[in-house]
Amino acid sequence: MTTPEASAATHDVEQQPAETVIEVRDLRMRYGSTDVLKGVDFSAHPGEVLCLLGPNGAGKTTTVEILEGFRLRSGGEVTVLGTDPATAGEAWRAQVGLVLQSWRDHAKWKVRELLAYLGVFYAPHSTPDRPRPYDTGELLERVGLTEHANKRISALSGGQRRRLDVAIGIVGRPRLLFLDEPTAGFDPEARRDFHELVHNLAAAEDTTILLTTHDLDEAEKLADRILILAGGRIVADGSAEQLAAEVARESEVHWRHNGERHSHATVESTEFVRQLFERHGSEITDLEVRRASLEDVYLTMVHRHETGQVDAAADEFTRGVR
Amino acid sequence: MNTTTNAVRAGAWRGWVEFRQSLTNAQDLLGYFLMPAVFLVISFSVGGETIPGTQIPAGALIMAGAVGFLVFIAGGMTVAQILAMEREDGTLLRSKAVPQGMLGYFVGKTCYMLLMTTLGVAIIVVPPVLLIDGFAVQGVAGWFHLVWVCLLGLFATVPIGAAIGSLISNPRMIGLVMLPFMALAMASGIFFPITAMPGWVQTLVQVFPVYWLGLGARSALLPAEAAQVELAGSWQHLEIAGVLGLWGVVGFLVAPVLLRRMARRESGSRVAQARTRAMNRPY
């Protein structure tokens, strides 16, 4: 049954544009005469795990620091949780959690002590649906540091230190969490544990997560949606499956003709091979047709990026996925 | 709950936690005892010499000046060192990442400096009271002068330390700052009577807080007759309060500007760069 009130309310909601946690339009960043970001556009929705993927030096950290409010942009529009981070206040800060790359801070503090201390700052921002801060004991349990609670932070291993960083990042039950290269330097096991932790976080707390990585495998495992940043632009935006499906239309054909190796990338591989046999018949040997994986295309782009052909690489990638 | 009050309370807790930590690690404990021990050795090494024209042992004069020097070093150098270090290791950025965290950080450091200096002064004052003739807190007035000179001394020197700390990016450079500090202290009559210095030096050092800190500490810890070897032949309490107060007021106007500039520039990539630099340093 539909009462007039209910339908009016539904109507109201539909009038509103869908709520976005992050809205970035034409973001530009220039250091001296170098353009690092040349017009980045993307958005993030509540509860989404978004992964900003790109080679080292592509501008991922710069982008994230602008969103965190730690760096002033050169141009473009940025809205994070409804506010411009460049001018946001303490109430906004209380909604945002950070896990950055190189923490070595508070080495003399004990694990439990630091969590409790940092938590205090969030207490005035507590709401019924998001009680703040997180209970210290519960949080330690959550990141698996209960038995190290009374250890000095300097005595933690690299993986434990990272877990503490995550705990600190979520101690204020943020609505948005930034993770910058969270598993750099992890062994495979620590990495798997960490991925599990992130999955649980996103599911249980309705926290939007933006993480950066240069590792495609990590992006595929964690993200609902992958944004690939290269040449100062977002060159691809979609779920791992979507991106894979798009690049998979192209195939690499390898063959040998008169003892010489050849290869050709094409969307019409069947037709190409038919023509190849038509022309050369049985002179063709060692024929191989392989679908390009997302990884192939990404690695090619990273390689080009690292050898200095940034724009060409970005363009090529754009063509690859479209 | 008001976020400012909340952060101030958290900051006070932070100061207490860090003070407690300083009592449980070898490096900080050494810091508390090293300078008093060095000055005690110097005081004993001058033997039975007395201040010319008085019966006061030279050792007592040096020890009293050392109390002023300790406050000068605590405010001017310890603060600089902590800031440079905690900027490099990300402690400052961490404080910036929580709401009102910077307020908590600075309240915490203030409490820490007060507690640390109180303990430091106690450690440097008690042994010579027991061991050195002519060195004693001069009654109620002496206690009063000791407390206000130390507090005003911190007020004058902490902004200097904060300014240095916000300008230096390599914490290991702090050692170099120690040299001019020592030279200034030496010229200011900390280690031997200032009357031994040339006239223009005597005039110049009166611009800086360390001269007045030394004078104030001596006024609290030496008998009245010791004043006759001072430049004015008296303890000049009004002038002490005036110069230290002026340094403090000007400092607290300038230092926050430098601190804000420094804090604004902190970000994850800067901390990462600092880490790389630190790891690549050969020393």
Automatic annotation (TrEMBL), chain A:
Pfam families: ABC_tran (PF00005)
Domain called ABC transporter: residue spans: 22-256
Location(s) in or outside the cell: Cell membrane
Record-linked Gene3D superfamilies: P-loop containing nucleotide triphosphate hydrolases
Signal peptide from the UniProt entry: none
The keyword Transport belongs to this UniProt entry's keyword annotation: yes
Keywords for this protein: Antibiotic resistance, ATP-binding, Nucleotide-binding, Transport
Annotated GO MF terms: ATP binding
Membrane topology per record: Peripheral membrane protein
PROSITE patterns: ABC_TRANSPORTER_1, ABC_TRANSPORTER_2
PANTHER family to which the protein is assigned, alphabetical: ABC TRANSPORTER ATP-BINDING PROTEIN
Record-given protein name: ABC transporter ATP-binding protein
Lineage, opening ranks: Bacteria, Bacillati, Actinomycetota, Actinomycetes, Streptosporangiales
UniProtKB/TrEMBL annotation, chain B:
UniProt KW keywords: Membrane, Transmembrane, Transmembrane helix
Record localization: Membrane
Major subcellular site: membrane
Spans through the membrane: 29-48, 60-85, 106-131, 143-164, 176-201, 240-259
Keyword 4Fe-4S: no
Matching Pfam families: ABC2_membrane
Membrane topology: Multi-pass membrane protein
Classification via InterPro entries: ABC2_TM (IPR013525), Nod_factor_ABC_transporter (IPR051784)
Any coiled-coil regions, as ranges: none
Signal peptide limits: none
Entry protein name: ABC transporter permease
Organism classification: Bacteria, Bacillati, Actinomycetota, Actinomycetes, Streptosporangiales
